[in-house]
Amino acid sequence: MNKSHPYLIVDALQYNNWSESVFKQMNYGGVSAVHATICFHEDFQEMVKNVICWNRFFDKYSNLIFQGFSSDDILKAQEEGRTAIFFGFQNCSPIEDDIGLVEICYRLGVRLMQLSYNNQSLLATGCYENDDLGITRMGRQVIKEMNRLGIVIDMSHSASRSTLEAIQISDRPIAITHANPSFWYDAKRNKSNDLLISLGKSGGMLGFSMYPYHLKNKSECSLEEFCGMIAKTADLIGVGSIGIGSDLCQNQPDNIVEWMRNGTWSLEKDFGEGSKEMSGFPLQPNWFKSNLDFINIKGGLSKIGFNEKEVELIMGLNWFKFFEKSFGKEEK
């Protein structure tokens, strides 16, 4: 076990400009597991190219990272002082219109998939659409297949009705890996009390996002405000249903966030939650700029009144337990 970080740190969403420097920060920050986005708008073939890039990272930086497939890999990473990288999609585009590709993605190591990314997909409605049609016919079949295989259903960018229906339809608890409660800040992706209560009652998980456009006071949000929001959410749905999903996009150029928002589907520029003057990546709050800064969150949670066991749950143990139930331990 990494003696300087005796507790698990699990981050349920990052999309950095991946490099040796970022992997070292994960190592020094004691981050045992990261859900890394390998798809926004890519089709299956384009997604496979991203897997190839990651395979090269795993080979070149094997002293720092390795691919995670099961909950056992989180413990292995903690023990060895490395970081387990779990593949996830922020969109369902790699499965195209072929449900058979869901199992192929699982075999490639994909363990989480959003059913929609802001827009209407073949599976569900995104949070930027005016009309939320809920889970589609194909979506119900894909949820069933994801349940069978052990791929986590992620509704972070989905609209409310679709998210509630996913909770009801899925035989396994779902996740909202990177969003915040709308009672604290009313961004399109942040979630209502009713939705969060349903998520908690079903055994699902919420990962709190540090992406500034979803924070109260954006980049100026204080650590105390952020941890206070976590405390209120714990009161609402229980401390066992919450964790961190930082949505960290470290070292990414502004053209990447434009591609994230626009993909290839639009001729118009989508500025997301920001104005035209804030169209690129916003500055991270000064207490969370990289994987070195999880220690600040731990301290903030303790200062706001969480006890040591509760801090341990929020920082990573809750996600470990959720992943253990979602895609299990490695079969021997």
Helix/strand layout:
Elements: E1 10-14, H1 20-28, E2 33-39, H2 44-60, E3 65-67, H3 72-80, E4 83-89, H4 100-107, E5 110-114, H5 137-149, E6 152-154, H6 160-169, E7 175-176, H7 193-201, E8 205-208, H8 223-237, E9 242-244, H9 254-262, H10 294-304, H11 308-327
Parallel strand pairs: 1-2, 2-4, 3-4, 4-5, 5-6, 7-8, 8-9
Key attributes of the depicted protein:
332 residues; alpha/beta; TIM Barrel; six-stranded parallel beta sheet; three-stranded parallel beta sheet
Give a structural overview:
Helix content is 39%, strand content 12%. With 332 residues, the protein is α/β, with parallel strands linked by helices. The chain has a single domain, classed as Metal-dependent hydrolases (TIM Barrel, Alpha-Beta Barrel). The strands form two sheets. Strands 1, 2, 3, 4, 5 and 6 form a six-stranded parallel β-sheet that branches. Strands 7-8-9 form a three-stranded parallel β-sheet. α3 links the parallel β3 and β4. α8 crosses α10 and α10 crosses α11.
Concise account of the structure shown:
This protein has 332 residues and is of the alpha/beta class. 39% of the residues lie in helices and 12% in strands.
Q: What is the succession of H and E elements?
A: EHEHEHEHEHEHEHEHEHHH
Quaternary structure classification: single chain
Number of strands: 9
What is the CA-atom radius of gyration, in angstroms? 18 Å
Structural class: alpha/beta
Strand content: 5-15%
The low-confidence runs, each spanning 5 or more residues with pLDDT under 50, are none
The total count of helices amounts to 11
Say what the CATH topology is: TIM Barrel
Helix coverage percent: 25-40%
How many domain modules?
1
Mean pLDDT reading: 93
Quickly name the level 1 CATH class.
Alpha Beta
CATH architecture term: Alpha-Beta Barrel
Question: For the record, what is the CATH homologous superfamily label?
Answer: Metal-dependent hydrolases
First-to-last CA distance: 22 Å
The dominant shape is globular
Largest sheet at a glance? 6 strands, parallel
